[in-house]
């Protein structure tokens, strides 16, 4: 995806003559086919913003301007000040790209967000599909137009009340020599490693910040050479103590040279101009504005992910232990939520929003809590059919015993990042709901019980999470799992079940989260976190399996045990004593207080 607002497109054929694919509208969605158009209260008026942007495009001779949904670091989660796509369109989904010409404005997003876009965009905007800057370049080549970048962001010029950068305090411990050794061991002999993703620099220096909501990151780039370290950062925010800790006053190979965050393009261009250099980048997280500077091609070395990301993905024994501990404390908070909801929902007093607030309050009381790891998905009934719905004051529905409820939430702790989803029903679920839930559970179990050779890619086993659903013609439209970090991002690449994820090895953590969503009715997702561990086999060595670290019970009344195989049942009984209590509750619907026997100290603190 292109860098945030840095890419200018001189022509885009896709914007001429295309019409918006028809989507059924309702009271909550816009209707631009009538006069005057119907716009729900959730729509943002973008007329003046588009006028101002187009006015700034004219003197630069820009035919079309691209506004990605990410920031200059291609981050999954972005700071409010980088939400340029939302500012221009009103659309708040996490995936999308907008293109503005003098006569049209179009948003590309995937099917998860089509309904949401209809609820949030006014009739200035049309809806289409995704492309990347490589696709743009290919499509433009035949028309004698080109894709280029400029350092000035036109959206920022329009956005007069753009949020400021937040202050932070950081500490660190250098891991530079390990990366330098990987550079020296490479047969391509890179002389420098460019780090663009925010978690790369945070990991390298063991630093945390608070520039990005829900993620402990700070704005930065790093250029690491064999004898220099350039850290591009907002230097005015660094304390004297931190500068001393970074050895910023010396000039040796283990001294960090602090440079202005905004000077990264100029400094990189100066470095690339030197003779005999080769810069190693991870293409998944290097923006086009930096990528285009590394020329000619013999000065460029690429891999999908940098050695920082692939190294960070494998947790050592200490990281594994403390990340497990974080999930134990997190389970307490989620169990408290479910116990509370079981008591208050029949009274008809609580909403999706109050439930989200309650689970975050429970987490805040746990040891080393640093807040939620993402915006809580608290959804009932038809709202749960939107896979990434989060309640607002306007959209929050009252929780009732007549509907299913899905809660996907997570916490940031000093020792780990958590993510868990549970789906429950406080009344009598339909047979369709029970079957769909059980088949989603079968997918979760089938993946978690799989034994596979080290180096297997998650994409090669992803269909196991869907097979039980496919058998009856059901499916889901999102990924099946993602990595998690040690007080990093809740979606930590490059671990997971997608085709562009790296092969699994021991020590990686991943979510396992199949689901099913029936439009305008209900949604189901069962998400657990698992660590990949060695698995002894009868004949072979170097085999792995998943060890579930999530400890929150499933809702027994939603499980049709007649659909489960004996292997699926027995796989979950071969666990620790505490997990046996969890599974016992899973099958026999004991009250969730059974887990007090496992975690008495933690739970008693909350009484």
Automatic annotation (TrEMBL):
Signal peptide stretch: 1-21
UniProt keyword list: Signal
Residue ranges annotated for the Creatinase N-terminal domain, each copy included: 49-130
Keyword Cytoplasm included in the entry's annotation: no
Entry's Gene Ontology molecular function annotations: metalloaminopeptidase activity
Domain Peptidase M24: 322-532
Keyword Signal tagged: yes
Family named by the database record: Belongs to the peptidase M24B family.
PANTHER family: XAA-PRO AMINOPEPTIDASE 1, XAA-PRO AMINOPEPTIDASE 2
Protein name per Swiss-Prot or TrEMBL: X-prolyl aminopeptidase (aminopeptidase P) 2, membrane-bound
Organism: Takifugu rubripes (Japanese pufferfish)
Organism classification: Eukaryota, Metazoa, Chordata, Craniata, Vertebrata
